[in-house]
Specification:
This protein is of the alpha/beta class and 368 residues long. It contains 13 helices and 9 strands. It has a 5-stranded parallel beta sheet with strand order 7-6-5-8-9, covered by helices on one side. α8 links the parallel β5 and β6. The chain is globular. The protein starts with a helix and ends with a helix. The structure holds N-carbamoyl-L-aspartate (NCD). N-carbamoyl-L-aspartate binds next to α4 and α8.
């Protein structure tokens, strides 16, 4: 796998000339227009049961992707995202096949692109993929396009993409993007702030606190939130909030307490020790809660004091401020248990909305 992965890039800047959108593929939110985002979010509203018309008739949903096959191709660990995509596909009537690097030929050295081409050649309609390299799904989408003849419309696949080439849906690529997480976070902000009618987030300020440097969730949040009119503030120590993020349209600060009273929502991120330069070395664990590797924070305790979302900080926020976290949560590090379980917490609502958003995305990519 290594030679191909080298082309995929290792940082948060995959090739910029790649197609962005909700055509057959969903590779990233950056570059998508407000209309495209609102279209898919409005569709998710139906599947989440929030449609104002009450037009929710699940009986026909299984027809929408009947006969289609969605392959989950996860080269990194996942709990929520993989299950959520599987449930979303099944609720629309698609069949789901699961492939992980453990137990597949990836562990025998097969390249990412070869694995993806082989899965595609079996006639799947969509490949939902997660990979530790930024740009990996873009690389696969390009390779599939170059080999389109091998997946021609007359072939086994009945792909909704028309050409017989499967849709690629990015379920997280390195530090780059996690577009469906961005969409479900945006959906949650809109739902909790009463903006489901038009998904217009003008006038709202959303904070993102924590390890933004390593976070694909943050990049997708920033792209989508800014496009829909929200103001985004990235908060954390300078080691975790690189100045270049300002070019994405966010403002940056290390003063959490200074900005808290002005926030309508806050998205709290885990410190992603496994993505730091010391990757491979262990981060904090239940057995060693204070263990810190790398140089991004001095200690977990200090980090919690300066940037942890505690109950005291929650009280400093607006009473209806929305507390989000993409999971997995490290309680007592980036967020206290009391804050994670508070009435303002939308953590489980995010997970629920995730299925609806992924139904909308799969439908959009596969049948337009
Ligand atoms: C995130 C991920 O894997 O990118 N989790 C998720 O998909 N819900 C965030 C993380 O790993 O911290």
């Amino acid at each position: 796998m290594s030679s191909t992965m080298a082309h995929a890039g290792t940082d948060a800047n995959p090739p910029s000339h790649e197609p962005a959108g909700l055509g057959p593929h969903l590779l990233q939110l950056h570059g998508l227009g407000a209309g495209e985002l609102r279209g898919v979010l409005a569709r998710a509203r139906l599947y989440a049961g929030h449609d104002a018309d009450g037009a929710r008739d699940p009986s026909g949903w299984r027809e929408r992707l009947a006969g289609r096959v969605v392959a989950n191709l996860f080269f990194e660990d996942s709990t929520r995202t993989r299950v959520s995509f599987a449930l979303a596909a099944e609720r629309l009537g698609a069949r789901v096949v699961n492939l992980t690097s453990v137990g597949s030929s990836v562990s025998k050295g097969e390249s990412l692109v070869d694995t993806a081409l082989n899965v595609a050649a079996m006639g799947v309609d969509a490949v939902v993929m997660r990979h530790r390299s930024s740009g990996a799904p873009h690389l696969v989408a390009r390779a599939l396009a170059q080999r389109a003849g091998d997946f021609g419309a007359g072939g086994l696949s009945s792909a909704g993409s028309g050409a017989g080439v499967p849709s690629i849906v990015n379920a997280g690529d390195g530090k780059h993007e996690h577009p469906t997480q961005g969409l479900l976070d945006i959906y949650t902000v809109a739902q909790r702030t009463g903006r489901l009618d038009a998904f217009d987030l003008a006038g709202l300020t959303v904070g993102i606190v924590g390890d933004i440097a390593s976070s694909r969730v943050a990049r997708s949040n920033i792209a989508g939130l800014v496009t829909l009119g929200a103001r985004v503030v990235c908060i954390g120590p300078p080691t975790l909030v690189p100045r270049g993020l300002a070019s994405l349209g966010a403002t940056l600060t290390s003063d959490l307490d200074g900005v808290l009273p002005g926030l309508d929502a806050i998205n709290v991120l885990r410190i992603q020790f496994e993505r730091h330069e010391s990757a491979g070395a262990p981060g904090p664990s239940a057995a060693n809660p204070g263990l810190v590797t790398g140089n991004v924070i001095a200690s977990v305790r200090e980090y919690h004091e300066l940037y942890g979302l505690t109950v005291a900080r929650l009280r400093a926020m607006k009473p209806l401020a929305v507390v989000m976290h993409p999971g997995p949560i490290n309680r007592g590090v980036e967020i206290s248990s009391e804050a994670a379980d508070s009435v303002q917490s939308a953590v489980l609502a995010q997970v629920r909305h995730g299925v609806a958003v992924r139904m909308a995305v799969l439908e959009r990519c596969l049948v337009g």
